[in-house]
Amino acid sequence: METQVCIEIQQVSKRYKSSGEDSLTKVSLNISCGDVFGLLGPNGAGKTTLISILCGIIPPTSGQVTYFVDGNIITENERKSIIGFVPQEYAFYQELTPRQNLDYFGAMYNIPKKELEIRREELLEVLGLAKSADKKVGTFSGGMKRRVNLAIGIIHNPEILFLDEPTVGVDVQSRNAIIRYLQQINKAGTTIIYTSHHMSEAEEFCKHIALIDHGKVIAKGELAGLKAENQVSDLQSLFINLTGEEYRD
Ligand SMILES: Nc1ncnc2c1ncn2[C@@H]1O[C@H](COP(=O)(O)OP(=O)(O)OP(=O)(O)O)[C@@H](O)[C@H]1O
């Protein structure tokens, strides 16, 4: 069965006002519905910039991003209700509990009260937060905070989910819980676009990747095919082969 494109990125460039150079240069990618798409690259490559443009947080300097549902182009407003974003930074209120945070963000999406309660309790349970649901998030470990961040990003059950380094700084247990849950929702139909510096995690999780360096796409496609083309057995070797050993600023 032919997969449908859900996001078409055409010649997207970005130059921040305060910067003398492009953070992204003519990035073109197609992301298919139902995919787990990894945006990978060294520090400063432009991954967060691209995710921010795709989510509509910042505008591109030039180029175009088009969203499709069932093959039809959707408007920017329609896009807002079908996407979820889990940012690198914690996007919750530290002085509130997970339950209160989820109620707050759920209300912002206008989720009806009863529905929100059910969804909230389901997420608290599945992400291992139920026991601490009434404690202030500010007192939590890094892993628990990451799981709260994730729960908030998906409270409205988005069709397309963006995650910017969702497992950074967490232990193996929390990492596994997060990835397992993401695999589960992907199986149920959610398209996932994700960034990570954790190559073995990305290798296990992603179906397709784009490797970005210095704002340009230097490789894209199905992971297995890219490894075969470059005659390497794992993603880390592919990454080093294509981006080199040199430090990035
Ligand atoms: N608000 C901004 N103003 C000016 N330059 C910026 C801004 N945000 C990012 N940049 C620059 O754009 C480039 C790409 O940054 P970006 O954060 O998108 O990279 P990244 O791949 O997400 O990096 P990391 O893996 O370190 O998170 C970098 O050179 C960065 O310094």
Automatic annotation (TrEMBL):
Gene3D superfamilies: P-loop containing nucleotide triphosphate hydrolases. It holds the Pfam family ABC_tran. Keywords: ATP-binding, Nucleotide-binding. InterPro entries: AAA+_ATPase, ABC_transporter-like_ATP-bd, ABC_transporter-like_CS, P-loop_NTPase. SMART domains: AAA. Residues 7-239 form the ABC transporter domain. GO terms for molecular function: ATP binding; ATP hydrolysis activity. This is ABC transporter ATP-binding protein. It comes from Dyadobacter luticola.
